[in-house]
Amino acid sequence: MKQVRQSRRLFYGWKMVAASIPIIALSKGLSNDAIGLYIEPFQTQFGWSATVITLVFSLNRIESGVLSPVAGYLTDRLGGRVMVLTGMATIGLGLLLASQIHSLWQFYATFLIVSAGNSLGGVTIIWAVIVRWFDRYRGRALGVVNTATIGHWLVPMVAVVISRSGWRIALAGSGIVVLAICLPLALAIRSRPEDYGLLPDGSTLADPFPHAGEPLPPNQKQDASGGAEGLSVGQALRAPSFWLITLATAVYGMGAHVSRLLLIPHLQTAGFSRELAGLSMAIVPLIGLPFRPLAGLMADKVDVKRAYPSLFLLQGLSFVILAYTTQMWQIFLFAIVYEPGWAAHLVFQNLLVSHFFGTRRFASIRGLMSPMITVIGMIGPVLGGAIFDISGS
User: How far apart are alpha carbons 278 and 293 in whole angstroms?
Assistant: First the structure.
């Protein structure tokens, strides 16, 4: 049996983690997060209704549900590097094309290209790569990657560019940034440590065992052979745990999407000004930023299977607080209760998949979960909007 030793140099997996943060922050921040800024300019210039424009959000979700299984399959066969390069190139090209639109069909086509780029080489694909490069420190690696939510803070910058130079310059500039920064950084992505004589967490094929005598975290297994272990896609689909994890992830995500979509109108009906309600959209993720790496650190030390249900309790408690929010300090309280659970959820869901099914077909299995998550995610905002229309609250 091959033995392993620990390299004294900085493990390349951590370098990929560092490269992944700006890739996700820039690509997602300049496309998904900022897309709402273009609604008003499009209404003004083209006379399109908000309903017609926002239809692209639903189309994006459908496209993501269709492409994610394909992207997962291709990632397991072609490697994460090829997929992330493809995704960043597609996003950048889509944004450049969107800056030149003159008709509604062009708007739909170009923004669906951008959405396709996020599905083919975005955050889910990067998660799949990181999972393969880490075992003992998988949770903290995913936690650090999730600090890429700083991409939210690009939205005010895009707003300034739109106000001063127009939406075409903002879209073209966003596309150039993605191509100029994210595309080169994507070259740092490597699919598997074994291709470079390494094992997860920085061990190399030699001797002796670097972690001999050390206990593994309760939710992880050590593969001394260095090979990716786990179930096939068919075996995973026949396992009840696949469907239960998918359903749990979908329900948790539905609550998150509804709360973010209706947060501003809810606060306005509670007496907040439009400016203060809008400011809350920046305050909540800012408060949550430190919880991203902390959630990853915690995930490496606890039994994720037992801890995961507690995240639903935190989410429910935070919604109760939000329902009765009438003052600004309560927004902070909501964020303090809600954000730790959301940060842990982003890490735990990937750890659960790797624990139950291994890493051999992680990307394919994770991608196949997307259709159900997408369908339930689409139901949530519609249901929430209907309740808001009926009750006025």
Answer: 26
Cα–Cα nearest to 31, from 145, 155, 143, 125: 155
Distance CA 113, CA 63 (A): 10
The span from the CA of 208 to the CA of 202, in Å, is 13
Q: CA of 333: how far to CAs of 28, 111, 286, 344, in Å?
A: 27, 36, 13, 18
CB within 8 A of 306, min separation 6: which ones? none
Buried b (16+ CB within 10 A) or exposed e, 51-64: eebeebbeebbebb
Amino acid letter for position 319: F
Contact 309, 352 (CB under 8 A): no
Instruction: Give the C-alpha separation, 165 to 162, whole Å.
Output: 5
**Rg, the chain, Cα only:** 21
198, containing H or E segment: strand 198-199
Evaluated on CA atoms 225, 5, 347, 312, the torsion sign reads positive
Provide the whole-model pTM.
0.75
Torsion angles phi and psi, residue 122, rounded to 5: -95, -150
Query: What string of pLDDT tens digits covers the 393 residues of the chain?
Result: 344 344 557 888 999 999 999 999 999 889 887 887 787 888 889 988 877 877 777 777 777 778 888 888 888 888 889 999 999 999 999 999 999 999 999 999 999 999 899 889 888 899 889 988 998 888 889 889 888 878 877 877 888 888 889 999 999 999 999 999 999 999 999 988 887 778 887 765 543 344 433 344 455 444 433 345 678 888 888 999 999 999 988 888 888 877 776 776 778 788 887 667 667 766 777 787 788 888 888 888 888 888 888 888 998 999 999 889 888 899 899 989 988 888 888 888 888 888 888 888 888 888 888 888 877 877 776 677 677 778 777
